[in-house]
Design a protein that fits this description.
heterotrimer, A alpha/beta (152), B mainly alpha (259), C alpha/beta (268), A: 2 domains, 8-stranded mixed sheet, 2 helices, 26% helix, B: 259 residues, mainly alpha, 85% helix, 0% strand
């Protein structure tokens, strides 16, 4: 085979490989390029974040607002501290926004759902969300249920 | 009893010796940076190793993607979780099947071809006379194939993943009727570039190194007879496959171990 | 300053595994002549060529190539030395991924910076010298054994070496190719003014062409001289070798019991 043809096919091969990688990155992981734009950090404390992982969604009314950046624990109070990255400039969430840890579907991944508050002031970079509800852990639920049964 | 221990000890020492020879060969060959006239050697190798493997990789990818989508759909629809087909398919492919299956196919097709080629050159004394002419066979024959394999395999893995996902789309969405929107968004929310694609490609790169190394060494080291060549080719496929699966096991534990 | 001897092997010792291949071997190859190293199969004749070419390192001893010890040469020195040696293997060892032209051009491209036009002319000249200029576009798989050997010879003389080494060039040749090879070896040696070292166990052909012979056995030289001198050599071993006697110092019978005793013994 002539060298020219070989070079062309090798070039095409490498190009195909690169396109495949790009396809995977863009189409399959759905990476959002606007994420590189501005964002600000907000923290929240929960009594139980069972199942919540970094990079989990943060959304309001089902619309994606940001991502969980880091999860750490306060061993003095036994609370989990969740750091969230919210897209855009500070000022779109009121200061008394509440955060709940929810589950997608029945068996799905955990995410943080935000519900709007009523205050005029808004969350700034570094603010903390004070109204929180931790993850619903099945065992606790069952335990509550059994206890309430026993009361009757 | 003593005899058995002696044989095991001898075999083990023999394996260490082989590994030593293989490492020396690798070190001598990897330091190869093509001089101006030598690029064509590398390009030729990428062609015969990579480009010629596209057909088998592509066909297998489509088939596997289709089959996976089918199986996932069947099982997940029992829980009403059809929307997870996209996610499941993508994650399994990117993290595991893409690198592993590509590696196995590569070992079988390209790996054995490399071994046979080099083995033939050794058996017909081409390597020897090349050396006598002052040309280092490690530079001219071994190194281009090593680099050709290391470049080709990750590219093939990416192509495999893409085609397999497409195969899954064809079966899952167009044939079985999973919801296209759910399929893609489920996939996109579950797949993360660094975590899944990145680690998958790291695996592919490691497998590329291992398979190409084994293939080249087996050819270079084989007994210069027809029988020796045949044995070497078989050994390439078997050793590569075993190593891929074993390394995959450890890598998976390492990468994803904290479930 | 050119030595009289292009190769001097001094006290060469080489052991492979348990087998002693060379045991203080000494020989000198004269410049400009055809020298043959002969001996029964397995005496390490090919190994000798590889040691001279620097591919194998001996356990002790020196191998002087134009006065310089091959075993202590640096990589660059060895590279330059190899440019002046042409080698012909028994298997021709043509590069199977190239055609005839490319094979002969290979050493030129490796060792020189000659432009392609010059290389083309040189290749055609070399191929013409061996009678295969018309076969330049064929691939090695399309050549007969004899033709392959001639191409390999053209490749060996590509850079006008001053030493050509032949490893068993006469083995398995039909009469015509045999005649061709014999003619080429003689003509090249005389026309190009090279020194020729030939390793073989084909007495008849070798004796017809060599100017000087060495006979090696048990890792040592057991006789040397011109073909005529060796034919009348007093040593019975050499006599058996030169004349091809089936029985002599190398016995016909593999060691066994007395024949009559064996026949008359009971079946065990």
């Amino acid at each position: 085979m002539r060298m020219g043809t070989i070079e062309i096919s090798v070039g095409a091969f490498v190009l195909a490989g690169i396109i495949a990688v790009l396809f995977l990155i863009v189409q399959v992981s759905g990476i959002n390029f606007s994420e590189a734009d501005t964002s600000y950090t907000v923290t929240a404390r929960f009594d139980d974040v069972a199942g919540l992982r970094p990079r989990a969604k943060v959304s309001m009314a089902g619309v994606n607002l940001g991502r969980v950046r880091a999860i750490s624990v306060d061993t003095t109070y036994g609370e989990a501290i969740v750091e969230m990255e919210i897209d855009g400039e500070p000022g779109n969430l009121s200061a008394d926004t509440s955060a709940k840890i929810l589950t997608e579907g029945i068996l799905g991944a955990r995410y943080i759902g935000l519900s709007p508050g009523s205050e005029e002031d808004t969350l700034k970079d570094g603010s903390e969300i004070t109204e929180t509800q931790g993850a619903i852990v099945l065992e606790n639920l069952i335990g509550q249920f059994l206890t309430s049964l026993g009361k009757d | 009893m003593e005899n058995l221990l002696r044989r095991i000890g001898g075999r083990t020492l023999g394996r260490f010796q082989t590994l030593g020879r293989a490492t020396i060969m690798w070190i001598q060959a990897m330091g190869w940076i093509p001089k101006t006239g030598e690029w064509s050697l590398l390009i030729r190798q990428v062609y015969s190793i990579g480009v010629l493997s596209i057909v088998i990789i592509g066909l297998s990818a489509f088939a596997i993607g289709a089959v996976l989508a089918l199986q996932f759909y069947t099982q997940l629809s029992r829980f009403g979780a059809e929307d997870a087909v996209g996610a499941g398919l993508a994650l399994v492919l990117l993290r595991e099947l893409g690198p592993v299956v590509t590696g196995l196919l590569f070992a079988g097709r390209a790996g054995s071809a490399i071994t046979a080629e080099i083995g033939l050159m050794k058996t017909t004394e081409q390597l020897s006379i090349m050396e006598m002419m002052g040309v280092d066979p490690l530079r001219r024959i071994v190194a281009p194939r090593l680099w050709g394999g290391i470049i080709s395999m990750p590219l093939l893995t990416a192509i495999f993943n893409m085609v397999a996902i497409y195969g899954g789309v064809v079966v899952g969405v167009q044939w079985l009727g999973a919801d296209a929107g759910g399929f893609w968004s489920g996939m996109q929310s579950a797949v993360e570039p660094l975590e899944d694609i990145g680690k998958g490609m790291v695996k592919a790169a490691i497998f590329a190194l291992v398979v190409t190394w084994v293939a080249v060494f087996q050819g270079y080291d084989c007994e210069p007879t027809a029988e020796g060549m045949g044995l070497a080719t078989t050994r390439t496929v078997v050793t590569s496959s075993v190593l891929i699966l074993a390394i995959d096991f450890f890598l998976t534990l390492l990468m994803y171990g904290d479930f | 300053m050119r030595q009289d001897y292009v190769i001097e092997v001094e006290d060469l010792c080489f052991v492979r595994g348990e087998k002693v291949i060379f045991d203080h071997l000494n020989l000198k190859i004269r410049r400009g002549a055809i020298t043959a190293v002969m001996g029964p199969s397995g005496t390490g004749k090919t190994t000798l060529l590889r040691v001279i070419g620097g591919q194998l390192k001996p356990d002790s001893g020196r191998v002087l190539l134009n006065g310089k010890d091959v075993c202590t040469m640096s990589r660059d020195e060895l590279f330059r030395a190899r440019r002046d040696i042409g080698m012909l293997f028994q298997t021709s060892a043509l590069f199977t991924d190239m055609n005839v032209f490319e094979n002969v051009a290979f050493p030129m491209r490796v060792h020189t910076d000659l432009p392609e036009d010059t290389i083309r002319d040189l290749v055609l000249m070399k191929l013409n010298a061996v009678g295969l200029r018309g076969a330049r576009d064929l691939k090695p798989s399309q050549l007969s054994g004899g033709m392959a050997r001639r191409v390999a010879l053209a490749r060996a003389i590509a850079l006008d070496p001053d030493l050509i080494m032949y490893d068993e060039p006469f083995t398995g040749q039909d009469p015509i190719s045999m005649g061709v090879i014999l003619t080429l070896i003689r003509d090249l040696n005389d026309a190009l003014g090279v020194s020729t070292l030939l390793v073989s166990h084909d007495i008849h052909e070798t004796a017809s062409i060599a100017d000087y012979l060495f006979v090696i056995a048990d890792g040592k030289v057991i006789g040397e001289g011109t073909p005529n001198e060796l034919r009348d050599h007093p040593s019975s071993r050499i006599h058996q070798f030169m004349h091809g006697d089936p029985d002599g110092p190398v016995p016909f019978h593999y060691p066994a019991d007395d024949f009559r005793f064996d026949l008359l013994s009971e079946v065990e």
